Amino acid sequence: DGGITQSPKYLFRKEGQNVTLSCEQNLNHDAMYWYRQDPGQGLRLIYYSQIVNDFQKGDIAEGYSVSREKKESFPLTVTSAQKNPTAFYLCATSSGRSNTGELFFGEGSRLTVL
Amino acid sequence: QKEVEQNSGPLSVPEGAIASLNCTYSDRGSQSFFWYRQYSGKSPELIMSIYSNGDKEDGRFTAQLNKASQYVSLLIRDSQPSDSATYLCAVDLYNFNKFYFGSGTKLNVKP
Predict the structure, then answer these.
(1) Is B27 helix (H, G, I), strand (E, B) or coil?
(2) Shortest CB distance from B98 goes to which of A40, A41, A48?
(3) Is B73 helix (H, G, I), strand (E, B) or coil?
(4) pLDDT confidence of A34, banded at 50, 70, 90?
(5) Which sign does the torsion angle of CA B40, B45, B51, B52 carry?
(6) CB of B42 less than 8 A from some CB of A
(7) B67 to chain A nearest CA, in Å?
(8) pLDDT in tens, A53-77
């Protein structure tokens, strides 16, 4: 299947634990993104990567970390420093070309802190 | 001013009517604009992209862009109950391939 695969779909975490959300794509897209969505709200950018081995902070990067060692993969770690991590996390990709680069989303990962 | 703004709604329209969704954005130089539909509990799916001033039609959907007014809209003709969802406006602000989203407008289409 072509597309973007996020795992796990549901994740429960105890306070003080780090968790890693996986995002894998086979669209051969250069750019990858992580967004957070809280109930009734829009999407806020956590981190993005335009190319392998490079990434930039978005608007709400505190308490999160990422890596981009392979073009296909962009995992997100939610650290214990993130004070309110319960949210819906969305990974997205784009071809990376201006004026043609639409965002495509995975199915999302729902994280709940117990 | 928020980078991308939408009325949160809900917007209620009867079945068969035209639904009009609006979005404003902060950067006059932005070039790429998108509308996404998101059903409850699901991820957003792309409906339309628009890059030039004017109208772009795709089936029952028409996107309208006015760069001078920093305004983009989505019209849904012959609205169906299955169109009931939250509609998100997204803009590649500053053309950095960095996409900003509005908070979304919830649309209810009543049978």
Answers:
(1) coil
(2) A48
(3) strand
(4) very high
(5) negative
(6) yes
(7) 14
(8) 999 999 999 999 999 999 999 999 9
What pLDDT is attached to residue A1? 56
Where residue B95 falls among pLDDT bands split at 50, 70, 90?
confident
Q: Residue range A27-40: average pLDDT?
A: 93
Provide, as residue numbers in chain B, all residues whose Cβ is less than 8 Å from the Cβ of A31.
Answer: 97
**Out of B43, B46, B98, whose CB is closest to A107?**
B43
> Which is more confidently placed, B71 or A83?
B71
pLDDT, position B98: 87
- B97, B100, B103: residue with CB nearest A50: B97
Side-chain half-sphere of A78: how many Cα atoms within 13 Å?
Answer: 26
What is the spatial distance between Cα A97 and Cα B95, in angstroms, rounded to a whole number? 10
Which residues, 6+ apart, have CB-to-CB distance to B108 below 8 Å? B10, B11, B12, B13, B84
Residue B74 pLDDT level (bands cut at 50, 70, 90): very high
Taken as a whole, chain A contains a residue count of 114
Yes or no: say if A13 and A21 are a contact pair by the CB < 8 Å rule: no
What is the rounded distance in angstroms from the CA atom of residue B100 to the CA atom of residue B23?
A: 12
B50 touches chain A (CB under 8 A): no
- Residue numbers in A near B88 (CB within 8 A): 42-43
